[in-house]
Amino acid sequence: MTSRRARFLQSIRKEVPQALTSGAHDDDAEVAAMLREVGIALIECEQPTHLVAARLQAIAANYTQQQVRVVVLPTALVVQVGSVAYEVETVIQQTTQLNLASRIDAVAELAEVGAITPADAAREAAEARTTPPRFGPVITVIGYTITTVGFGMVINPTWASLWGYVFLGAVVGAIVMLGRPFPTLNAVLPVLAAAVVTLLASWFVADAANDGLLRVVSPPLVAVLPGLALTIAAMELASAQIISGATRLIYGVTQLMLLVFGVGLGVHLGDADLEPVQPSAQMGSWSLYVAVIVVSVGLYIYLSAPKGSLLWLMLAVGVALIGQKVGGLFMSPVHAGALGAFLVVPFAMLGARIKTSPPAIVMMLAAFWALVPGALSFESLSETAAGQGGVMALGTTVAAIFSIALGTLVGWSVLATINARLRRVAS
User: Scanning 43, 67, 347, 409, which has its CA 20 to 30 A from the CA of 1?
Assistant: First the structure.
């Protein structure tokens, strides 16, 4: 029975690449160039700086015996190998494109076991950074619209608001797509999207859906909410990465302020009524499970996930959202995200070892999007700006962000400890 189980596990596991025979004797300049390309690509894929630094050190150990120093920041990377080889690189553009992240992770995995030459790793990482999205603008807008509907079913699952989510999601998706060819417009996109969505919602959606304005506009603004940035900032601060965490936190808060300004502008132009209203009839408890499927399909298209990863995205999003739901049974809704984040990490790391699965980075990015910490942040701050919240609303914002960050850190620490113990036992 034991041998049969071992053969089954062996048949579904990904094969571990074999290390090259050259060992740690590669040219230091080539090693530094490889670390530069792989490292900056990981930063552009929205990875925490302390994890990028640890991964680069693990890669370097396979190729050189020289001392390696790495300084990782949210927008820059400095690498020194020995006393001669130096490399400096800056981020061109942050991306949540999952097929690109998958290619970068594949190169990094090969380098972590020394199964690729430094020159080949640098070349493939540079090529991966130019990977185009899998879907065109129209399909991507459709994907974003589907994602908006899914998030609406998570945040505010009412029948009357569904058509509003479709309409407003398509509008924001079109705005985001129009801004992609012009990176310089990224600074004003949050204001523009928030103002347009609030204006349209106050004119056509909120009254027709018999719902509060802020509950209607939150799901469509998922793309411009800095929830992922704020969560990573909290992780970095908790890991003593003060410069990276503080700068990323300031960036996230600034984005939130721009969104709130855009909402305020839309409220003023549309003469919207922010008085609380009786919510429309809610969907049943089944809506969460349908939302898992809808969000997964939407993210698969909008984030350009790699081929064959849809089922795994559904599983990762399901673990996150259902874990959050279970956490809400014995914790406050604000803190329930910690359990979802905690469960996602081991699921993604262990699932990534199965042959048909995408890299763990793909599943975790999708799951963090599903937890939507920024949605709570945006709604709480908007309520405060409208005079409906206060210190408690701001406290909700901070608690929601740090609960997800804490769950991620604990999950990562527990899994790393177990893996280290298993390696010692095996050796």
Answer: 347
